[in-house]
Amino acid sequence: MEQLPPHLVNKKFPFLSKIHSPEDLKTYELEDLQNIADECRAYLIDVVAENGGHFGSSLGVVEITVALHYVYKTPHDKIIWDVGHQAYIHKILTGRKDLMHTNRKLNGLAGFPKISESLHDAFGTGHASTSISAAAGIAAARDLSGGNEKIIAVIGDGSMTGGMAFEAMNHLGETKTDVLVVLNDNQMAIAPSTGGLKDYLVNITLNKTYNRFRKFIWDSISLLNNDLGDAAKNAVHKIEDGIKAALTPGAFFEALGFRYFGPIDGHNTEQLVRAFREMRELPHPKLLHVVTTKGKGFKPAEDDQSKWHASSGGFDITTGKSLKKPGGAQPLKYQDIFGRALTELADKDHRIVGITAAMPSGTSLDVFQKAHSKRFYDVGIAEQHAVTFAAGMATKGYKPVCAIYSSFLQRAYDQLIHDVALQKLPVVFAIDRAGLVGEDGPTHHGSFDLSYLHPIPGMVIMAPKDEQELRDMLYTSMQHQQGPVAIRYPRGTCAGLTLRPGFTAMEIGRGEIVHEGSSIAILAIGTMVQRSVETAQMLEKQGIDALVANMRFLKPLDTEMLNSIAERYEKIVIIEENSTIGGLGSAVNDHLQKESLSNSVLTIGLPDTFVTHGSMNDLYRLLELDAENVSRRISNFYKGTVTEKSESSQSTIRTERLA
C-alpha cells in the first residue's frame, strides 16, 4: 500500500485513527459524534488540499454521514449517494481512510461510489438524480426476497431538480414500501440551484410558524414512544398533518405518498441521530428534509461555494490560497473560448440564447449569462428538458445553444432524435468534456458522443483541432438553419494560439491537410489532430513520411478528400478520442466499403471498455494514445508486423473490493 503523505502521518486524529469501519464508529457515545465529525472534516480538508477532488459537497454532509453510519448498519443496510461526490466521508468511515490520498489517481480509489470498490457502496453514482430510482429498485428486490435491510437515498447538490427523481418518488409513493429519502438541501448544485422547487424548499425552511409547531412536536413527543398507545400516536400524526396542510406552502411530498419530516439542522449530529432512529422504525416511504451548508467548516468554500465545488489541490488549509508556484499566463480552456465566442456572437444577434443544465460555470455559459441574462436559461439538472426546451425555442426562430457535457447529454438521447433531429430544428449542441476527462473517470469520460450522434439523420457533427477552429465552428453553426449541429470539444486547455479577430465561416463537410507525407495517411479529428502531427514528426525520424488530415467533420464526411487519400495511400490510420465503435473509424471504413476500396485501415481510439480514472497523461499511456505509442503502432502497421494493440493496453484496471 502506498504510504500516507507526511503531513497526514503527523496529524493527530484521536477518534478517526481508531475508526476502520462503521462498527468502530458505533462503539462511541452519542456525545462523541460531533468530535468525530470535526475530525472527518479536518481529514478531508487535508486530503483534498494535497490531492484535489470534489470538496464542498462532502464538507456539507459530514454530520449526515456520521449519523447515518451510527444508526444504520452497512453493508446490510443500503445507502445510495446522489450525487456521488457527496460520498468522501462515507469512504473515510467504511475502511478507505488510509487510501483517500489515492482518490482519483490511476489504480487508486474512484472519485464516486463504486460497487466493485467496496461492499459499502450499494450503487455506483456519478450522474445526478438517480438515487431514488436505485433505492426503489433495491427495495423492491428486498421485498420480493423477504429481506429486512433499510434503504436510504441521500439526494442533494441540486439533484432533486432532475425529473428522474420525481418519477421515482411518484412510483415509490404508490408502492408504499420502506425507503428513506434524505434531502440534503444546500440550495446548490455546482452553481446555485434554480427553479420552483428551490423556492418551495426555501419557503418551508423560512416558515417560522410551521417550524415552531414542528419543533414542539419533534422535541416534546417521540412519535414512536412505547409509552404512547395507538390512539395517542394517531392523534399526534393527525395534529402534525393538520399543521403541515395549514401552514406549509403546499404538501408536495406528501401528495406523492411520502411522509415529510423536517426541516432539521444538518450539522447537529445529535438531532440527526435522533431523526434517523425515528425514520428507521417507520415502515413506509418518508422524506427527511435536512438543511446544510455546502463547504461547511472551510471558510473559503463557504464563501465561494461554486469555486470550491471541486479543487485541483495544492492549497493552504487555512486560507485556501494556492501553494502552486505561478507559471506565467496559462492558456485558456476550451470552455472559456466557447463562452466568450458565444457571447460575442450574441452581442450582434438577439436570436441567440444559451441553455445549460445546472452547469453555467462548468460550461462557461456564466460569461454569456452576465452579458445577456434575459437570454440565458439554467434549467437545473434536467438534460431531457433542456433539449426539448431548446427545440421549442427553435420553432419560434431563435438560435438555442445547449451547452452540456458529453456524458450528460447521453441522458437526453431520445429528445435529440425525436424532438430535434426528426423535426430538423436548428439547435446547436456545444458538447463539453468530449473525450477523456481524467480523474473523474468512466462516469464522466466523453467516450461515446461521436458514436451516439453519428446515426442521427441530419445531424452535423464537428470537432475543432484548436481554439480558433472552435470559434469558427460556432459561427458556422449559427449560420446553419437546416437542422441540428453538434460541436464536441475537450475539457483541457487550448494550444495557446493568438486568435484572429472576428469569425470565419467553414464549408460544412470539408476537411484539410495539415501535414504532407507520401508513405501513409493519418486521418484525425478534434484533439487527436495535434497528436497526429507530433506522431508524424516522430515517424519522419524512422523514414516514414506521414500525411495528416484534419477531418473536422464526422458528418457529413469529407468523402472527396477521403477518396483522394484512398487513391494515393494503401494504408490509412484513423485516430480519434472516442470509442472505436461508431466513430470516425467506423465512418471511414463504411465509406471505403461502399466505394469498394480495399485500403488497409488501422483505427486507434478508445477501447471497447469503460476507461478507468487517472491523470490524462496516465490514461493516454495506459490506452497507448500518447505520441510515442501511437507512432510505434503506426510504424508496426506500416511495416506489416502488428495491426492490433499490444496486450498490455487491453488490460483493465481493477480495484480490490473492500469488505
Short description:
The protein is α/β, with parallel strands linked by helices. Helix content is 40%, strand content 14%.
Describe the structure.
This protein is an alpha/beta fold and 659 residues long. Strands 9-8-10-11-13-12-17 form a 7-stranded mixed sheet, sandwiched between helices. Strands 2-3-4-6-5 form a 5-stranded parallel sheet, sandwiched between helices. A 5-stranded mixed sheet has the order 14-16-15-18-19, sandwiched between helices. Helix content is 40%, strand content 14%. The chain folds into 3 domains: 6-207 and 248-306, Thiamin diphosphate (ThDP)-binding fold, Pyr/PP domains (Rossmann fold, 3-Layer(aba) Sandwich); 334-488, Thiamin diphosphate (ThDP)-binding fold, Pyr/PP domains (Rossmann fold); 512-649, Rossmann fold (3-Layer(aba) Sandwich). The chain contains 26 helices and 19 strands. Strand 3 (151-156), helix 8 and strand 4 form a beta-alpha-beta unit.
